[in-house]
Amino acid sequence: MSSTGQETTPTPAGRRDGRGEARMVPRAQPRSYYGRPVIKPPAWKPEIPWYLFMGGLTGASAMLAGVADVAGNRRLARNAGLITLAAGTASPVLLISDLGVPARFFNMMRVLKVTSPMSVGSWILLGTGSTAAVATAHARLGMFRRAGPVARGLSALFGLPLATYTAALLSDTAVPVWHEARRELPFVFAGSAAASAGAAALIVTPTAEAGPARRLTVLGVIVEGASSQLMEHRLGELAEPYHEGRSGTYAKIAKALSTAGALLVGIRGKHRRGAVAGGALVLAGAVFERWTVFRAGFQSANDPKYTVRPQRARLESRTRGGSP
User: Fold this and answer.
1) pLDDT tens-digit profile of 90-110?
2) Cβ proximity of 198 and 215 under 8 Å
3) Fewest CB atoms within 10 Å of the CB: 35, 97, 256, 287?
């Protein structure tokens, strides 16, 4: 290591200084042309992290409503269904706002393109929202007596892919910290979505009927935290954006809020004040978690080393394996 902090390596044999010692020269660091970013960050507005949060909340709440309905917990099923409907209505509004022109959203609905996560996700969102509306009308107003129970089941069925498809949406990009985390990111989003759904239901449901929501909240926080740790461990150096800059700040806030909220729900969740306070903390933590992932992607796209080094590692791996 040189006095300037640069990594150094000896020059080839035969190239020595006047004292006969091998000279040390800086080893080339992975950089792009003139140190500029190799890829462009996504042209996404601040509405997108909120869209990621609302999509997860919609999907997990739909599943919670379906399970509660089967278990005979009508109050929890109705409340989770209302959350599904509210979050499912906000999601396309946020997406349309990001697109800038409403016609772009409706154009996406003209064709189902199975190779496009955005196209598939838009159709899943539409299916979840429409079935949740029918199920809620049946539960609250007594309408659609035959279609209501079927709609509740379909809404829960759509819920699982909706809670995780946004992870596929991010992983399908060239942004290093998203693409390289394609194995763990769906579990991170699934855990965060489950915690959000449980927390939201806790806030609006009497504690006597909110047992499943309490368990879902704590379990979701555990799954999200464990998946995040596993993701960062496997990413290695590529996980640096999660600990630096604005993303690092958001990550610390998200972990603190989610952990405090889960502990409060676990310890005092059977009391109304503890349930409401704990649920609010977990919801806030889930929001910051989506902002963490969002900002980390932009930070990794703006630094060329996060693009060049994984490419070189894959090339060296193929070379060692005898691939051309």
Assistant:
1) 988 888 888 777 776 677 777
2) yes
3) 35
